[in-house]
Amino acid sequence: MRRFTRNTAIAAASLGAALGLSVSSASATSLATFTVTGGGAYTATATNPTLSVPAATLQCATSTANGNVPNGTGLSGTPIGTITGISFGGCTVAGIPFTVTASALPWNINVTSMTGTNQANGTITGISATITGTGCNAKFAGSVTGNYTNNNHTLHVTGGGTLAAQAGASCLGLIKAGDKANFIGNYVLNTSPVISSP
Question: Superkingdom of the source (predicted)?
């Protein structure tokens, strides 16, 4: 009986310690905050951004985005900023011209962590865009991963995330609903916001 009681106490203490660690870790994550200086309204440009699905790649000559990254301290990072408008020019698939139309704006720029003092890591969420061309109409929606580097004020869209072709996608057999999409581009801002974490 004494051994059972002792073992039960040890188990209870271990469980309590584990729960305490879990709560502490969650609390630490929820308390992460960020600071933005030098922010405000911006315009950003990218050269040769791409959108790839398993059977095809859409390549554009240029893309221009605009939005806002407000200054502040104690920011949650979700969002840290917005994309209120975005356009794409000179887009083709295998040399065939395509048009890209963004929707459901604004899209949110979120920061979740820092790598050193220069790189803010996160996601862009709420993405929605439709590509159209000869025999092709496909809507994409979801999120992508990326990072922002302070030293060259560039938003790097690195693919990943949940971005995928939506129901009704039809594109000569090249794109079908559910196809995972990788959106990749480097957007250089005309302003120089600096993101940090205390």
Answer: Bacteria
